[in-house]
Specification:
With about 280 residues, the protein is an alpha+beta fold. The protein contains 11 helices and 10 strands. It folds into 2 domains: about 160 residues, no CATH class; about 120 residues, Beta Barrel (OB fold (Dihydrolipoamide Acetyltransferase, E2P)), CATH 2.40.50.
Length: about 280
């Protein structure tokens, strides 16, 4: 679990952490209101003197640990789902986290809640129904499901943005070809023309590569050579010579030379797209 939290920042940037914190705090307030209503009804039915303020205070104090437990469990599960943590490791982390959470609740009752009530801790623990201790793991499991659902929503938004495809119109005389940039695997300069290369054909357009570099490098293309840009996701392998990348092969079978400057850009791109854990394993 320590390793998982070490990499949590990569999977969940601060903005997403804050959104989970906001959601779980809202859930905590909802639970506080719900438990307050239930306790009020029970005390009225039993004829116990009480005030709403006293009940709210008591419920808020006993629920303090959940202000930390809810976001911790949700963030942990969301991080697991986004990073593709193996199910055995994920379950082990969540079980360990649940055990620590229940221990924290137990200690909170002894050292905070019992003194708040002015009652001996042993007596307070005796009066807590067994169902309450069963309910705690259920709440933790429900919070983990919330984190899982949050991760799915992130993946869906990411997939939607990735599938929103940019298009380019290539004109040759009276002919116009409309291409999805996602179908282009490379763009190469050929004299006064530029060739847009897909997996099975090429389109020539009278323009210069320099006019396209800025736009295409914002769409996951790497300027590997003064005459070539390639689609980063299409790179299948790299060949090295004299300590640097000298040639790339694409999934389509196309190969292109890589200049010294292009090798630097390509190295930076590959480093940004490689999981730190996978890179460490590869080096090992």
């Amino acid at each position: 679990m320590i390793q998982s939290w070490w990499h949590a920042c990569d999977a969940l940037p601060p903005a997403r952490w804050m959104k989970i914190l906001f959601i779980t705090t809202g859930a905590w307030l909802g639970l506080l209101i719900g438990f307050t209503i239930i306790t009020t009804i029970d005390m009225s039915r039993l004829g116990v003197d009480h005030t709403i303020v006293e009940i709210v205070q008591a419920q808020a104090v006993i629920m303090i640990p959940w202000l930390a437990i809810l976001p911790t469990v949700a963030i942990t599960r969301a991080r697991q789902a986004l990073m593709g943590t193996p199910i055995a490791i994920a379950l082990s982390e969540l079980v360990l986290l649940a055990g620590l959470a229940i221990l924290a609740i137990y200690l909170h009752i002894i050292f905070v809640y019992a003194p708040f009530l002015g009652a001996p801790p042993a007596r307070v623990l005796e009066q807590i129904p067994l169902a309450n201790w069963v309910w705690d793991p259920v709440m933790i499991a429900m919070t983990a499901l919330l984190g899982d659902a949050y991760a799915r929503s992130i993946r869906q938004r990411s997939h939607s943005s990735q599938t929103t495809r940019h298009r380019i119109v290539l004109r040759a005389g009276n002919q116009e070809d409309i291409l999805d940039i996602g179908d282009i695997v490379a763009v190469s300069a050929q004299g006064n023309y530029v060739a847009f290369i897909s997996s099975d054909r090429e389109w020539l357009q009278r323009t210069t590569l320099s006019e396209l570099v800025v736009q295409l490098t914002q769409m996951d293309f790497i300027h590997i050579h003064r005459s070539h840009l390639v689609s980063g996701p299409e790179i299948a392998s790299c060949a090295r010579e004299r300590g640097r990348i000298a040639r790339v092969s694409l999934r389509t079978g196309h190969t292109f030379p890589v200049s010294a400057r292009g090798a630097e850009l390509l190295e930076a791109y590959l480093a940004s797209k490689t999981s730190p854990r996978l890179a460490a394993r590869a080096q090992a």
